[in-house]
Structures are given as structure tokens and as C-alpha cells.
Automatic annotation (TrEMBL), chain A:
It comes from Commensalibacter nepenthis. Transmembrane segments: none annotated. This is Dihydroxyacetone kinase subunit DhaL. InterPro entries: DhaK_L_YcgS (IPR012737), DhaL_dom (IPR004007), DhaL_dom_sf (IPR036117), Dihydroxyacetone_Kinase (IPR050861). Residues 8-207 form the DhaL domain. NCBIfam families: dha_L_ycgS. It holds the Pfam family Dak2. Gene3D superfamilies: 1.25.40.340. One of its GO terms (molecular function) is kinase activity. The keyword Transferase applies. The keyword Kinase applies. Keywords: Kinase, Transferase.
Automatic annotation (TrEMBL), chain B:
Residues 10-332 form the DhaK domain. InterPro entries: DhaK_dom (IPR004006), Dihydroxyacetone_Kinase (IPR050861). Its EC number is 2.7.1.121. Keywords: Kinase, Transferase. This is Dihydroxyacetone kinase subunit DhaK. GO terms for molecular function: phosphoenolpyruvate-glycerone phosphotransferase activity. The lineage of its organism: Bacteria, Pseudomonadati, Pseudomonadota, Alphaproteobacteria, Acetobacterales.
Length: 214, 335
């Protein structure tokens, strides 16, 4: 098992991200229905499908494929999720520009850059009941694992666990941001749809990278 | 999924299809742009005039596009149902409206709109266009007064566009338009009551639930929960219930002159809006508040929600002059 992942075609990774969102379209909308409009899965799948038509059959670097995903979301769906995920994927894309091989340090930098781009447009904090509750612990745990000299694969698994814990933590949180924040205490007891889609994406990224190790 | 009784083609394309209808029906008001989600007033841009831009989610018709017109909004960014337009749509609306004197982007306080406008303003600056913004936050039910920056923008936005659009037409510069639009919304308070839910066509089932015989006081334009759910009241008491949180903020003291805007939420018969207005008018008279001008109708809706919103703006000489100025748009015709 190698500690360097070779990415011949970035479309493969982004395709996996598209598939996980599109196949969870109804599930994500259902979760959103409890405290939101019930359209999270619809909008996300719409944006990710736009990306599918733009990258299908192409040969792109990971950076180029992620940039297509970012554009598809920012220009395709708008709302809150367009800019939020758009900024995360822009951060990822910028960080891996020109790279066809990724070390765990590269992935760490990529994740950190996505987080930092997100923070440029959103004041969301951990505990607000939003996708940040998944993303930040995932990114931090991966960095910590790298620091502790875990293997690439171990670090990816640690990140997946942190993402799932982060997602689950939103169940008992009171929403402090976005439309659900108007519910106050009534927003408790259900998962946040954004934290759930973020967990699907982070987990899929980890699985797709791991698959390329073998 | 249950079949919806709706006049549509494809539930996923209601926004696209509606835009076609608006443009076909009112070519004197709407011109298409290179961006399919941006419409503009045909004679825009006007050199030397501050451009007025707004935008928001669809489903609130005639807002937002219905306020594109003469002496009001110059270009509008159109989002999915109840979902902010993209940053690209806001940017292209800013470009369409820019006549060299800068652009005032006057919009409502929602997370998505805030992010998309922020990105668009940055890109507009890079393209050499100065854009300044006013964020409407007139809904008293959405946060207490000491957290006013968290309040949503609702039907008071129309009065902000009216004032800002009239100021731009009167030759105000960008800072002047921004200052007076800010004053308009600062002088504005709104609240809504919901009696039934609404269905986003692509979702196919009601967004939330209000039991028969109940009403939700302080409901938002997307069905955001309000202050409380109480048994349905007659129009007289409903007017009192809604005026109470507005008047208690002390803005509309005896002797003040106001504009009142009463809007249905989509399914409310116009007749009932007037039954409601009569009660509001009576209470304001009792309090010594003078209604200078009133608007009653479906000005800012939420798909087929049953309910009513009440907005009031306190006037000074400048606001009065701008509110009284002629306007010609789909949603508002005057003078």
C-alpha cells in the first residue's frame, strides 16, 4: 500500500461525489423536511447533476474536476448551499492545482483550504447545527492524525469517524444559523441536512481516495 | 407522490416557465438579458442614474421581478422557489443596471442572499462597478429589537425599493440612494400571520402544517415559524394581535404619518384583505397615527399560503415625497 495516491483522472473522484449525492437525493430532502423546506436533496442533486453533464467522459485533473463541481453549484443552484459547497470545492481545487499525486499532507492542505474558503463567506461556527459541524471536526481530525504520523489510510478512517460523529452531534443541537434557526428549541431532535450531506461527501472522498491506494 | 392540482408543465421548471410568461405578457416592463435568471427594465441602463438591483427566491410573486419598472427596480436576479439567486445572477443584474453612477443592491436578510450578494459585489468591484447594499430587516417577529440585524426582510422591502427607486430617478447619487433606502427600511416594521401551508411544486407536499382553526402569528415568508400558534381570530382581533408587537417598539407614536402595506400570502381572497385593512385603519385612527397612503393586495406572497402580512413605514418629508412619486411596475402603479 502506497502513501502516495496517483490520480490519473480527477473525474473519477468527482463522479463518486456526484453519485453519492444523487443517490441520496430523497433521503436528504426528507431530513430537510423536518426543519427546512424539504428541498436540500433536490437542490444538491440538481447542482451535482449539472456537474455530471459538464465532466462526463472527460479527462481532467482533480483540480479541474473540482473547479467544475464548484462552478456547477455556485452557478447552478444558488441558495445557501451553492455558495457554501461552492467555496469548499474551490478551496479544494485551488489547493491541488497541477497535482496528479497526493500525499496525506496534500489532502490535509486541501481540506484546510476548503474550510478557509468557507469561512470567508460564512460566519458559521461549530455548534450552529449546519454542515460546519461535520466539516470542521473532519478536517481537524485528519490534521491531527497526520501530526501523530498515522498512515494515510488510518487518517482517512479517523476523518470518516469524526465526520459521522459531527453529523450525529447536530441531532441534539438548536439551530443557530440559516432558516432552521427561526425554530429555536423546536429545531432539536433531528439531524441537520447540510451536516448530513457533508458527511456523505467527506466519507465518499475518503473511500474514493482509499480505493486508489490499492 | 400525490398529483398536485397545479397549472404547470414540469415541477422542476416552474421558475423558467414563469419567466417566459412574464416577459411575453409585459414586454414594456421586462427585457431578457444574457443571463436567463436576470430580467431588466427595457430602457436600462440609463447613463448617470444609480442602478437599482434586487433579487430573491421565486414563489413570492409579484416580488421580486414585479417591482422592475419605471422609477423602481432596474434589474432583478431570480432564484429557485424560496432559494436565493446565484452570485452570478446578482452580478449580471448589477452589470445590467449599471449606468456609470454605481448600483444600489436592495435585498432581504437571508443567509443565502447575503452570501451570494457578497460574492457578487466582490466580482462587480473587480469589473469596475461600485455596488453598495441595504439589507432589509423589517420583520419584528423574527428576532427581538436588540438583535435587529438578525431580522428577516419581508414586505417592507417593497417600500425600500419604492423609496430607493424614486430617489435614483430623482437624481440622488449612490450614497444618497443608499442612505434613503436604509432610512426607509429602518422606519419600517412588518409582521405576518399564516393560516395554511404551501407546497413547493418540486417537493410535492406541504412545507409545514397549520391545523385547521389555528393561525401562526409571526410566520415568515417561507413558513418559518413565528412567535406562537393560537386559535384563529376574527379580523378585528387579528389586526390587534399583529399591531401589538409593531406598535410596542415605539416607532409609530401618536401624530406620526405612515404608509401601510397589507399583503395577502397567495391564497387570501382580496376581499378579506380589505376586511382586515378596515380593522388596522380603525386601530391606527384610535392611536392617532395618520395613514398617508395605503396599499392593499397581493404584493408579496408565499406560493398558495393563506394569510396576511402587515407592513408600516413611518414618514418624514423626504420619505413622503419619494413614496408619492409616480411609479410603473407590475406590482405597483401610481401617478
Amino acid at each position: 500500500m502506497s502513501e502516495v495516491i496517483v490520480i490519473k483522472n480527477g473525474v473519477d473522484i468527482v463522479d463518486d461525489l456526484i453519485n453519492v449525492i444523487v443517490s441520496n437525493r430523497d433521503y436528504l430532502s426528507e431530513i430537510d423536511g423536518a426543519i427546512g423546506d424539504g428541498d436540500h436533496g433536490i437542490n444538491m442533486a440538481k447542482g451535482f447533476n449539472i456537474c455530471k453533464t459538464r465532466i462526463d467522459g472527460k479527462q481532467l485533473t482533480l483540480s479541474e474536476a473540482l473547479a467544475e463541481l464548484s462552478d456547477s453549484l455556485m452557478e447552478g443552484i444558488g441558495g445557501s448551499m451553492g455558495p457554501l459547497y461552492g467555496c469548499i470545492f474551490t478551496g479544494w481545487s485551488d489547493s491541488v492545482q497541477g497535482k496528479t499525486e497526493l500525499t496525506k499532507e496534500d489532502v490535509q492542505a486541501m481540506l484546510a483550504n476548503g474550510m478557509s474558503e468557507l469561512q470567508d463567506i460564512s460566519p458559521a461556527q461549530k455548534g450552529d447545527k449546519c454542515l460546519v459541524d461535520t466539516l470542521f471536526p473532519a478536517v481537524e481530525s485528519f490534521a491531527q492524525a497526520v501530526k501523530e504520523e498515522k498512515t494515510f489510510k488510518e487518517a482517512l478512517n479517523i476523518m470518516k469517524d469524526a465526520a459521522a460523529k459531527g453529523r450525529d452531534s447536530t441531532k441534539d443541537l438548536v439551530a443557530k444559523i440559516g432558516r432552521a434557526s427561526r425554530l429555536g428549541e423546536r429545531s432539536k431532535g433531528v439531524l441537520d441536512a447540510g451536516a448530513t450531506s457533508c458527511c456523505l461527501l467527506v466519507t465518499q472522498l475518503a473511500d474514493s481516495l482509499e480505493a486508489k491506494m490499492n | 407522490m400525490m398529483k398536485l392540482n397545479r397549472i404547470i408543465n414540469d415541477p422542476n421548471l416552474v421558475v423558467e416557465d414563469a419567466i417566459e410568461g412574464y416577459v411575453a405578457a409585459h414586454p414594456e416592463l421586462f427585457a431578457k438579458t444574457d443571463h436567463e435568471r436576470v430580467l431588466k427594465y427595457p430602457s436600462i441602463p440609463q447613463q448617470g442614474k444609480v442602478g437599482i438591483v434586487t433579487g430573491g427566491g421565486s414563489g413570492h410573486e409579484p416580488a421580486f421581478l414585479g417591482y422592475v419598472g419605471k422609477n423602481m427596480v432596474d434589474a432583478v436576479a431570480i432564484g429557485e422557489i424560496f432559494s436565493s439567486p446565484t452570485a452570478g445572477a446578482f452580478l449580471d443584474a448589477m452589470k445590467a443596471a449599471d449606468g456609470g453612477a454605481g448600483v444600489a443592491c436592495l435585498y432581504g436578510n437571508y443567509a443565502g442572499d447575503n452570501m451570494n450578494v457578497k460574492m457578487a459585489v466582490k466580482k462587480a468591484a473587480a469589473a469596475g462597478i461600485t455596488v453598495k447594499t441595504v439589507v432589509a430587516n423589517d420583520d419584528v417577529a423574527s428576532a427581538p429589537i436588540d438583535e435587529k440585524e438578525k431580522r428577516r426582510g419581508v414586505a417592507g422591502e417593497i417600500l425600500m425599493w419604492k423609496v430607493g427607486g424614486a430617489a435614483a430617478a430623482a437624481g440622488y447619487d449612490l450614497d444618497g440612494v443608499i442612505a434613503v433606502a436604509q432610512k426607509a427600511i429602518d422606519n419600517c416594521r412588518s409582521i405576518g400571520v399564516g393560516l395554511s401551508s404551501c407546497i413547493i411544486p418540486a417537493v410535492g407536499h406541504p412545507n409545514f402544517n397549520i391545523d385547521n382553526g389555528m393561525m401562526e402569528v409571526g410566520i415568515g415568508h417561507h413558513g418559518e415559524p413565528g412567535i406562537n400558534v393560537v386559535p384563529l381570530q376574527p379580523a378585528k382581533e387579528m389586526a390587534e394581535t399583529m399591531l401589538e408587537p409593531i406598535l410596542k417598539e415605539g416607532l409609530f407614536e401618536s401624530g406620526s404619518e405612515v404608509v401601510v402595506l397589507v399583503s395577502g400570502l397567495g391564497a387570501t381572497p382580496t376581499m378579506e384583505l380589505y376586511i382586515y385593512y378596515a380593522e388596522v385603519d380603525r386601530i391606527l385612527k384610535e392611536k392617532g397615527v395618520k395613514v398617508h397612503r395605503s396599499y392593499v393586495g397581493n404584493y408579496f406572497t408565499s406560493l398558495e399560503m393563506m394569510g396576511v402580512t402587515l407592513s408600516m413605514m413611518k414618514l418624514d418629508d423626504e420619505l413622503k415625497k419619494l413614496v408619492d412619486a409616480p411609479v410603473h411596475s407590475l406590482g405597483m402603479v401610481q401617478g
